[in-house]
UniProtKB/TrEMBL annotation:
GO-annotated molecular function: transaminase activity
Superkingdom of origin organism: Bacteria
Protein family: Belongs to the class-III pyridoxal-phosphate-dependent aminotransferase family.
Record's protein name: Aminotransferase class III-fold pyridoxal phosphate-dependent enzyme
Required co-factors: pyridoxal 5'-phosphate
Organism: Microvirga puerhi
Keywords: Aminotransferase, Pyridoxal phosphate, Transferase
Keyword hit for Transferase: yes
Length: 447
């Protein structure tokens, strides 16, 4: 149970000082109208002005089982009191092996090893390094290039930023990793707009990989990295057969395929990982967010056995991977991760998601004929309502829609003119209707 916010904490929220520089935030605008939350439980936040706000984003794509799950809260408490910290460099504690084993158990067949990080960004950079290290361990050190994709989001480390495909994120920070190429976005509004789930058209976009490999000698490419469903870049489900084709091209050329499942992992598509729902098996899977239900920062790389085995060929006393983070496998994160997996299982949350995703799809697409709607895309419990930009004011409609929803007690995320949705997987039909109705009423009032 979440404690009700005290009067003192509410008063504090009104006098917050100005020391904190928030990520991805227009700071001066934020100061004039700070959005603050004091507590959360289940599907709702409590805002600083005492309102219950329905969470349409699972925090930031992470609180899959809803907020304040008592079992997770208790596990963190217990771990903090018992073992506050132990390094994972040359030592560890039992929960790291237990959690890794549980993750391997729900991963696609053959992913027998897990490397722990503290975030999705670190998971991505770790996966890129493991990919290069794998080739080198096999005597193929010339394979160093990476291929990402337009609109891909792989976190904010220099590696993830380099393979990412959102130009604005990179503009101020170059130069990035050399030798990175990008596939284009597999999307064409005319043939794929308003698709329900995976678009029927668009598999041919995967053939671009062959073209890129004609320019970038395939024998120099270490890995292709994609989100199975593009998330932060705008929720683009993969066209049918697209990922299958990427998979077979990578296999043909000895290139590793990395699925970045930081958003899609832990049930979002109705299976533990999107790889299972979409029936395509990559070589490395990055994950984070739902790994602990968002309760403690944690990420990881799930690794296929043949990759791990390649690292194990040297002398047994030699360190195989010169890489890691102080907090890799932190006791609080492991406790939260184990409890989160228990909760997901107990609630049969992934199976439930597969069922309620149909209601979600129909509700979202009921907005199709409302004003300013340019496209609607969905898969699992992910969705986006794309608004047509107002002439000369890109992003204005998105911001206005998100504000209006918030005023009506619903938290959605505006990314330019996209209204991005990713509710906790415990959402019910009434709450789905509340999200969709708040968007409906916002776009009806908007010019
Ligand atoms: C697909 C994907 N990869 C990586 C990241 C980065 O994760 P983090 O913010 O935990 O570093 C994100 C974050 O949203 C993501 O969506």
């Amino acid at each position: 149970m979440t404690a009700a916010p005290s009067l003192a904490s509410r008063a504090m929220a009104n006098d917050i000082g100005d020391a904190h520089w928030l990520p991805f935030t227009a700071m001066r605008q934020f100061r004039s109208n700070p959005m603050m939350f004091l507590a959360a439980e289940g599907m709702h936040y409590t805002s600083a002005d005492g309102r219950r706000i329905l969470d349409g984003m699972a925090g930031l794509w992470c609180v899959n089982a809803g907020h304040g799950q008592p079992r997770i809260v208790e596990a963190i408490r217990e771990a903090a009191g018992r073992l506050d910290f132990v390094s994972s460099f040359k030592m560890t504690h039992p929960a790291t092996f237990e959690l890794a084993g549980r993750l391997a158990g729900i991963a696609p067949e053959g992913f027998g090893r897990v490397f722990f990080t503290n975030s999705g960004s670190e998971a991505v950079d770790s996966a890129l390094k493991i990919a290069r290290g794998y080739h080198r361990a096999r005597g193929d050190a010339g394979r160093t290039k990476f291929i990402g994709r337009a609109k891909g989001y792989h976190g904010m480390g220099f590696g993830g930023l380099s393979v990412g495909g959102i130009g604005r994120h990179k503009r101020d920070f170059g130069p990035l990793l050399p030798d990175v190429a990008h596939l284009s976005l597999p999307y064409d509004r005319a043939s794929m707009g308003f698709s329900r789930g995976q678009p029927d058209a668009g598999a041919h976009y995967a053939d671009e990989l062959e073209s890129l490999l004609q320019i970038n000698d395939p024998a120099t490419v270490a890995a292709v990295i994609v989100e199975p469903v593009i998330g932060s870049g705008g929720v683009y489900p993969p066209p049918k057969e697209y990922l299958e084709r990427l998979r077979s091209i990578c296999s043909r050329h000895g290139i590793l395929l990395i699925f970045d499942e930081v958003i899609t992992g832990f049930g979002r598509l109705g299976t533990a990982f999107a790889a299972q729902a979409l029936r395509v098996t990559p070589d490395l899977i990055t994950c984070a967010k739902g790994m602990t239900n968002g309760a403690v920062p944690m990420g990881g790389v799930l690794i296929r056995d043949f990759i791990f085995d390649a690292f194990m060929a040297g002398p047994p006393e030699a360190i195989e991977l010169f890489h890691g983070y102080t907090y890799s496998g932190h006791p609080l994160a492991c406790a939260a991760g184990l409890a989160a997996l228990d909760v997901y299982e107990e609630l049969r949350l992934f199976e439930r998601t597969a069922v309620i995703a149909t209601t979600w799809q129909e509700a979202l697409h009921s907005l199709r004929d409302e004003p300013h709607i340019a496209d609607i895309r969905n898969i699992g419990l992910l969705g986006v309502v794309e608004l047509a930009a107002r002439k000369g004011e890109p992003g204005a409609r998105g911001a206005s829609c998100a504000q209006s929803c918030y005023d009506n007690g619903v938290l959605v995320r505006a990314s330019g003119d996209l209204i991005v949705l990713s509710p906790p997987l415990i959402i019910d039909e009434e709450q789905i209707a509340q999200i969709v109705d708040s968007i409906r009423s916002a776009v009806r009032q908007m010019n």
